Amino acid sequence: MLLFVFPFTITFVLAFLLMVEMFGDETTENHVQQGEFISNVLAKQSALSLLYGSGESAEHIGGPMLELPLVDQIAIFEKDGTLLYQKGEAQVWEEVFSSKEISMLTRGSLECQNDRYWQFLTPVIIKGTPNDLERAEGSDASQMIGYVRVLMSKAELQRVKLNFILNALAFSVVAALVFVVVVRKLTKQLTAPLKLLSDAMSGVGEQKTKFVPQEHVAKEIDHIGRAYNEMMGVLEQRERELEYARDAAIGYAQAKSQFAANVSHEIRSPLNGILGTLNLLACLDPAEEQLEYIQLAQESGEQLIFLINDILDYSKMSARQMPVESAGIDLQLILEDIVTLQSGTPQAEGVELVCLFESNVPTLVLGDANRIRQLFNNLVSNAVKFTESGEVKIHAYLAREYGNTVEIQFSVFDSGIGISLEDQDSIFDPYSQKRTASGRTYDGTGLGLAICKQIVELLAGKITVHSELG
């Protein structure tokens, strides 16, 4: 609304100042004309007083003149400048016109002025000669026999100006208030539909809000509102479709996980029976070749049990059925045990496994030992699998500490083949398998890192990957 009020105020102030100036000029001109008229009348009536040099006659003429408004002082002078009569406020006359200039005047004129007064001068002119009054009326000859001065006050002009300014200011204030009220009402009428539309748009994220068209609304706003309603209808339809697709995808994933868990569970029971039978056969003192076959079958069965356990763990975590325990654990001991265990595997041949535990990291903490052991066992096993020679290192250091809580950051480094940027985007996806440039696919279900990600999130942590090929 200020955009309307400010220009109006500036325009109104300028117009007001112009009106004051014009009113002052007009009033001044009227007062000057009035002063010249009074001076001319006084000059005509002073002719006989000047002819006879009669101060008493001048008194009878000048007395009534002082009763007129604005007249403060009058004076009647003879031709040579001798004062014949003066009455009124004791003011010093300003001698502006010389006697020669006065003799050239034919009527009253404004001689000078200041902040308080106007001073008028009018010559007293008669036709004929002073000694022949009878012939004066029939003669065209004229001569100046004296002059008069009239002093008029500007107090009335200043009072009138002040009253005009006060009245104009009062009118301006009233007009401004009326204008503001009218503008506010019009602005409210114009912006109310826009506000409704804005409120409807602002509430999109919280609730499904539609714009309700109002009567007496501009066509453009009505069109925008209807277009907005159409857009909201399309968005609601898309949202319903997305919700349906999401629910279907979640249902499919849950069904798939449940199916995998059920199948894996059913397979594990007879598989444990097979492994038990193989153990019994190994105890029957078989021949050396037979023992090798039995041991090979046992290793294959144990590998199959490991894969089945991965599938079951992933299914439980996806269904949020994996509880988290909190008990006192020795982190350093757990990590060192994992390094020792993985160092004894055939895959770790030619690979050095190292555990680096910073001195400021507390070893005894509250946590879930089983989940932490499973997490790092998967990470180290995965690193060893892709490292033919070199080093695999677990590094633990203190990230930050606040109160009784510590944030520990773990890093698992390896000098293996590396991972491309393209593969890093899907490294934690379930059933994701790494292929080498030659097309070789490594053993496993592709669930190891997916399970690691779920365990970390279950423990309120975060897992990332940084790698380069080669």
Q: CATH homologous superfamily of the domain at 2-161?
A: PAS domain
Specify Rg, calculated over alpha carbons.
57 Å
Strand order of the largest sheet: 2-1-5-4-3
Element string (H = helix, E = strand):
HHHEEHEEHEHHHEHEEHEEHH
Multimeric state: single chain
**CATH first level of the domain at 2-161:** Alpha Beta
Largest sheet, described in full? Answer: 5 strands, antiparallel
Q: Given the C-alpha coordinates, what overall shape results? A: rod-shaped
> Strand-residue fraction?
15-25%
CATH architecture verdict of the domain at 2-161: 2-Layer Sandwich
Number of beta strands? 10
Strand pairing plus helix content: what structural class? alpha+beta
Q: What is the distance, rounded to the nearest whole angstrom, between the alpha carbons of the first and last residues?
A: 67 Å
Share in helix: 55-70%
CATH topology of the domain at 2-161: Beta-Lactamase
Provide a count of the helices.
12
Q: Extract low-pLDDT stretches.
A: 132-139
Average pLDDT works out at 78
